[in-house]
């Protein structure tokens, strides 16, 4: 009886894997870069990925060959700009993760990246609209507050925009917040859950430390909030002109991609992650995109959560974030 049950369960699991096979092609655009390579490595481990499709201007065949030797079940292909490479990379993709673009350098803000990365993202959006219009699109390319609206406008122009399937990846802010709080409270980061809302640059990043269940002094709140908002600057400065956060961003990007796959093809219920999406939370104030906790399901962003109960300190942070966020979003929409 027990053996029969095990065989039956295995058969059911195998049947699910087979039926999901066509749904779990994952494309990484910008796969040969500082974020793209470690991100692709982490995605190679995901059992829901049957085909890892890598695209970049150069070097992707080599990255793909290297990853293809790892003994997990997904096949890996590398594509470049030549010979319809982007089309082949995107065709039938279920998830598209986009770290493409130039990194920040010392003294640069994410907004300084706008002119270069906006054009890159617009071109990728037009290609995705044509070759994988129903894919779940995960935007890492900065400035996320503007690149997500750019992508949305390109999809709208093509008539294929689905707000449930377009996400700005803000997970790094949550990962940093968990680590930074754990350091000062002498806890294991896996036990520290910090909700971070707003956007993905500077003052638009709002950590809701009052919801952690921990007590903080005013000095701790000030120091932690600033470090969470500007933690990326630490990495840019430490790398001394050679780049920005790549390894931690790859880790955070893979975490979010894994959650999308768990919810859309893995059948997992109750998957909740923070992400920058088209949101009703502050739409009445003209802020059409906002990051809060979002419940993911088979169709993508199924339920967008509000802020919950916040402190007076956090309300002031929200008040400071909204005008900046509105400006960033409008800049993207008008590009």
Automatic annotation (TrEMBL):
Residues where NAD(+) binds: 30-36, 56, 117, 140-142, 249
One Gene Ontology MF term: L-malate dehydrogenase (NAD+) activity
Keyword Oxidoreductase: yes
Catalytic activity line of the entry: (S)-malate + NAD(+) = oxaloacetate + NADH + H(+)
Active-site residues, record numbering mapped to chain: 200 (proton acceptor)
Domain Lactate/malate dehydrogenase N-terminal, chain residue ranges per copy: 25-168
Protein name: Malate dehydrogenase
Lineage: Eukaryota, Fungi, Fungi incertae sedis, Mucoromycota, Mucoromycotina
Gene assigned in the entry: ABSGL_10662.1 scaffold 12033
């Amino acid at each position: 009886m027990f053996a029969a049950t095990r065989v039956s369960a295995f058969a059911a699991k195998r049947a699910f894997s087979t039926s999901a096979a066509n749904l779990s092609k994952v494309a990484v655009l910008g796969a040969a870069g500082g974020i793209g390579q470690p991100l692709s490595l982490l995605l190679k481990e995901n059992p829901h990925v049957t085909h890892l499709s890598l695209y970049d201007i150069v070097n992707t065949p080599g990255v793909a060959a290297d990853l293809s030797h790892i003994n997990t079940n997904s096949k890996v292909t590398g594509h470049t700009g030549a010979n319809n490479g982007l089309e082949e990379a995107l065709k039938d993709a279920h998830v598209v993760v986009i770290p493409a673009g130039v990194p920040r350098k010392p003294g640069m803000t994410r907004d300084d990246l706008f002119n270069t990365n906006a054009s890159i993202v617009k071109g990728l959006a037009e290609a995705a609209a044509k070759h994988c219009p129903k894919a779940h699109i995960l935007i890492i390319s900065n400035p996320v507050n503007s690149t997500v609206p750019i992508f949305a406008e390109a999809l709208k122009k093509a008539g294929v925009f689905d707000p449930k399937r377009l996400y700005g990846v803000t997970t790094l802010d949550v990962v940093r917040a968990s680590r930074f709080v754990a350091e000062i409270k002498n806890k294991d980061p896996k036990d520290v859950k910090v909700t971070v809302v707003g956007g993905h640059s500077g003052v638009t990043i709002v950590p809701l430390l009052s919801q952690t269940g921990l007590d903080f002094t005013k000095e701790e709140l000030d120091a932690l909030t600033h470090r969470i908002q500007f933690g990326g600057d630490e990495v840019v400065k430490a790398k001394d002109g050679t780049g920005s956060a790549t390894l931690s961003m790859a880790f955070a990007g893979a975490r979010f991609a894994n959650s999308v796959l768990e919810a859309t093809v893995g059948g997992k219920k109750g998957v909740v992650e923070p992400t920058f999406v088209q949101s009703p939370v502050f739409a009445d104030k003209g802020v059409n995109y906002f990051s809060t906790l979002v419940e993911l399901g088979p169709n993508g962003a199924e339920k967008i959560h509000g802020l919950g109960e916040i402190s007076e300190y956090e309300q002031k942070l929200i008040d400071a974030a909204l005008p900046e966020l509105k400006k960033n979003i409008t800049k993207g929409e008008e590009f």
